[in-house]
Design brief:
Its EC number is 2.5.1.129. FMN binds at residues 10-12, 36, 89-92, 124. InterPro entries: Flavin_trans-like, Flavoprotein, UbiX-like. This is Flavin prenyltransferase UbiX. With 189 residues, the protein is of the alpha/beta class. The protein has one domain: 3-Layer(aba) Sandwich (Rossmann fold), CATH 3.40.50.1950. Helix content is 41%, strand content 15%. The chain has seven helices and six strands; from the N terminus they run βαβααββααβαβα. Strands 3-2-1-4-5-6 form a six-stranded parallel beta sheet, with helices on both faces. β5, α6 (130-141) and β6 (145-146) form a beta-alpha-beta unit. The radius of gyration is 16 Å and the shape is globular. It starts with a strand and ends in a 14-residue tail after the last helix. The relative contact order is 0.17. The structure holds flavin mononucleotide (FMN). Flavin mononucleotide (FMN) binds next to α2 and α4.
Length: 189
C-alpha cells in the first residue's frame, strides 16, 4: 500500500491539508499525519476540525507525535511513498532550507530530501521576502516541489471549496495520483 506523510504547519490554509489527505485516502493510500503545535491550532481555528478526531474517524490515517523522533518517519530506512507539507509556513520552510530539524515534521521532510523521495511543499504567505524566495529556490534545487497555495480562476470557481480543490488536485497531480478534484483546461466536465 502507498503510504504518504502529511505535514501540517501553522500557515493559513489548513483546508488544503484536509482536502489533500482525504483525496489520498480515497485513492487507497495510507497516511501518517504530523502537525506542529501551531499547525493544529490554526487548523482548529480555520476549520473547526480537531486533528485527533479527524484521524480517529479515518482507519488508514495515523496521527504522529511531532516530538517523537523515534517514529519511523524519522528514518531513511523506512520507505514512504512521498510527503506533502500543506500548508507550509515560512518558518518551517526556513528550517528545511537550512537543514535544521527541530521536530518530527522537519526531520521527516529532511529525510525525503536526503533519500531523494518526493517532497511537495505548499507554502502560504504574502508578500514574500527575498529570504522566503531564496529558501524556496534552495529547496527546489534540492529536489522538493514548490506548489504555492495559488488557486487559478480559469476553471471559474464558484465556492471556496472549488479553490481549495484546485490546489489539492494540482498537489495530487504532482504526486502522480489520479484525481478529479478540479476541472482541467478544455476537458469535458
Ligand atoms: C491564524 C494564523 C495564521 C498564520 N498564517 C501564516 C501564513 O499564512 N504563513 C506563514 O508563514 N505563517 C503564518 N502564521 C505564523 C506561523 O504560525 C508562525 O510563524 C509559526 O511559528 C509557524 O510555526 P510552524 O512552522 O512550526 O508551524 C500564522 C499564524 C496564525 C496564528
Amino acid at each position: 500500500m502507498e503510504t504518504y506523510i502529511i505535514g501540517i504547519t501553522g500557515a493559513s490554509g489548513s483546508a488544503y491539508a484536509l482536502r489533500i489527505s482525504d483525496a489520498l485516502l480515497e485513492s487507497g493510500a495510507a497516511l501518517r499525519v504530523v502537525a506542529t503545535d501551531t499547525g493544529r491550532r490554526v487548523l482548529e481555528y480555520e476549520t473547526g476540525v480537531s486533528l485527533e478526531r479527524w484521524a480517529g474517524e479515518r482507519p488508514n490515517a495515523v496521527l504522529e507525535d511531532n516530538a517523537d523522533l523515534f517514529s519511523p518517519l524519522a528514518s531513511g530506512s523506512r520507505r514512504f511513498t512521498g510527503m506533502v507539507v500543506a500548508p507550509c509556513s515560512m518558518s518551517t520552510l526556513g528550517r528545511l532550507a537550512c537543514g535544521v530539524t527541530t521536530d518530527l515534521l522537519t526531520r521527516a521532510a529532511d529525510v525525503m530530501l536526503k533519500q531523494r523521495r518526493p517532497l511537495l511543499l505548499v507554502p502560504r504567505e504574502t508578500p514574500l521576502t527575498s529570504i522566503h524566495l531564496q529558501n524556496m529556490l534552495t529547496l527546489s534545487q534540492c529536489g522538493a516541489t514548490i506548489l504555492p497555495a495559488m488557486p487559478a480562476f480559469y476553471h471559474r470557481p464558484r465556492t471556496v471549496d472549488d479553490l481549495v480543490s484546485f490546489v489539492a488536485g494540482r498537489a495530487l497531480d504532482c504526486l502522480g495520483v489520479e484525481n478529479h478534484l478540479y476541472q482541467r483546461w478544455r476537458e469535458e466536465p
